[in-house]
């Protein structure tokens, strides 16, 4: 990547914070963006805060998809940004109206000092609540100043009126002592009346202010959004520990309004999820991710109609949500019908991910009702039956799939024809395919290679944790180098690289836990595979067996 001269100069400028008072006032608005990027890259939180507080444009976007090797912004810089947004609410130099932080979060517990999704969500909600409290304090101070100003004006009017009355009471040609004494007594009485009148006026003003405050509180719900200065858009991660704070931030009406693009919830009840969805703007939510929540069939059927009220929702992910269709119990058919009808109401759904939901034989019931063909379908750990795969290979979804994950669904001679038919139908659109942990042996892979090689649009292929020998792995790599669009291949360690004692047909769990041979043996395998790449001039194809760090989204 070539670094521009502007970026290099911006990095030098933000490196010296002591000079910022000299150049900040003269910076043109088109240079604020490269300066802010340089401040994030160089981890200069003070520079981040000063630039954001004076942000000259209506929109500020920080985050988005990162390139390979690029880390998430430092947490100190993110904290400085959030504080500067609150300070900018009262800064006339700040023109910010929309703050887009979608994709800003790093991995929870990952390397570096980035801010994870849960931490960022809590920080955002705290910022929204604090901004509301600050605005209330500012309004209270402004009201007090206005009350004092009105009182001072009234006192000045009374003094002028009393002075005029006293001057009118004086005679122009000499006044005797008794007249002077009488005028003094009258003036003193009028002054006493003026003080009483001013006290009564002040009491009325205080009562009026209290009444106005009460009316404002009563009508606050009717005028939500009228006092919003900045709309904050982000991806939210909510669990039981952060639910109360997120709920408070979403229900707060103040200068900052929190909006959500993708909502991820973990280990919270259906009622809590419903409460959050009720407070979200209907036009903004694009995706819903529910994990480790005991929804059950009834809970999911209850949520789907509510999700249908979000017209832009195009992604639904359900991970370990205690949906078990293997056990037959009274009402199962009604529950399946409710789920099918609920999914049919999601008019824009393009991405569906179902992990470990235990629904063998029911894939047709769930997918046939979708109004549009899916582009992304993830079905790992679903124990799919041959009937499920047969339906999928002939469904209207097969021709539009761009991403397919069938990991940990065991493949054999019975369902292999369905997989080959599915790959044939998706050959023009499929870009990412994962068949990790599917029990592919050398013989099964040999039958599948022609179908894999026909997927000319494929960019990433994951086949980790399959029991392949070195000969089978070499066949896989030779096929991969003939696929012009392929950029990443996650291959399994060959059986020869494992220490002795593996079962004859090891499962993915065996391959994951079984110790490997010494490093030289693994290096020899990598050398042989890279030689195939060099012989075919495929330096653009990345081979890896690192399952934990593999990420298909990091393809340039």
From TrEMBL:
Q: Where are the transmembrane segments?
A: none
Q: Name one GO cellular component term.
A: cytoplasm
Q: Where is the composition biased (Basic and acidic residues)?
A: 139-157
In which compartments does the protein localize?
Cytoplasm
Gene3D superfamilies named among the record's database cross-references: Ribonuclease Inhibitor
Q: Which SUPFAM superfamilies match?
A: RNI-like
Q: Which domain of life is it from?
A: Eukaryota
Main localisation: cytoplasm
Q: Where is this region: Disordered?
A: 135-157
What are the UniProt keywords, alphabetically?
Cytoplasm, Leucine-rich repeat, Repeat, Signal
So which residues are the signal peptide here?
1-15
Q: Give the similarity note.
A: Belongs to the PRAME family. LRRC14 subfamily.
Protein name from the UniProt record: Leucine-rich repeat-containing protein 14B
Write down the species: Channa argus (Northern snakehead)
